[in-house]
Design goal:
GO molecular function: acyltransferase activity, transferring groups other than amino-acyl groups
CATH topology: Aminopeptidase
Radius of gyration: 16 Å
Pfam families: Acetyltransf_7
Strand order of the largest sheet: 1-2-3-6-7-11-8
Protein name: Protein containing GCN5-related N-acetyltransferase domain
Number of helices: 4
CATH class: Alpha Beta
Helix content: 10-25%
Number of strands: 12
Organism: sediment metagenome
Keywords: Transferase
Number of domains: 1
CATH superfamily: Gcn5-related N-acetyltransferase (GNAT)
Largest sheet: 7 strands, mixed
Strand content: 25-35%
Shape: globular
Order of helices and strands: EHEEEEEHEHEEEEHE
């Protein structure tokens, strides 16, 4: 079973569960919410087996996405923080969580993209989950901070094959996203 909760509705217990799984999957003790990483519109996903939460992830709204100079009209969401409790890794639960997130996105007509470090070697996982992966596409996304624009470094991008925003990128158009997404 998957529970979806908006950031503004997260209980303290849900925050603790999210932090515990996110941190243990990454060997970090950091509180993801202490760095002002909780936004009211974000969507948090909790995958449960019986009565135990075993995997978490989130979709973060990326506001003010521009294609060249036009505001992009389709909601764009970044998939992030996909984490499986180490005791349950390698059991297909990460893939199940991502499939649930994808189903939610399709049902709600959301464009999903994700950025990740090329060195993380997660390509196989995202491909197994039905995403396309392009380790050069990050250069097509430009970060806008006020009037300053810079490249989106060297990050790889995951996306749905038929996504209209991605189709525009393949036409060599630039996409501008806010730094704070």
């Amino acid at each position: 079973m998957v529970v979806v909760t908006q950031g503004r509705e997260l209980s303290e217990n849900q925050k603790l569960i999210f932090n515990k799984i996110w941190g243990s999957a990454r060997n970090k003790s950091e509180d993801i919410f202490s760095r002002k990483d909780l936004r009211p519109q974000d969507l948090y996903f909790f995958l449960h087996t019986e009565d135990t939460c075993v995997a978490v992830g989130r979709l973060r709204e990326i506001p003010d996405v521009y294609l060249e100079k036009e505001l992009w009209k389709i909601p764009v969401w970044g998939m992030s923080s996909i984490s499986v409790d180490p005791k349950y890794q390698k059991s297909g639960l990460g893939k199940k969580l991502v499939e649930e997130i994808k189903n939610y996105a399709v049902k709600n007509k959301l464009c999903i993209i994700g950025f990740y470090d090329k060195k993380s070697s997660l390509d196989w996982f995202y491909r197994k989950c039905g995403f396309e992966v392009n380790d050069q596409m990050g250069k097509s996304f430009l970060i806008k901070t006020g009037d300053e624009i810079k490249d989106n470094c060297d990050e790889a991008v995951l996306y749905f094959k038929n996504d209209p925003l991605i189709a525009e990128i393949f036409k060599n158009k630039k996409v501008y996203i806010p730094y704070t997404w």
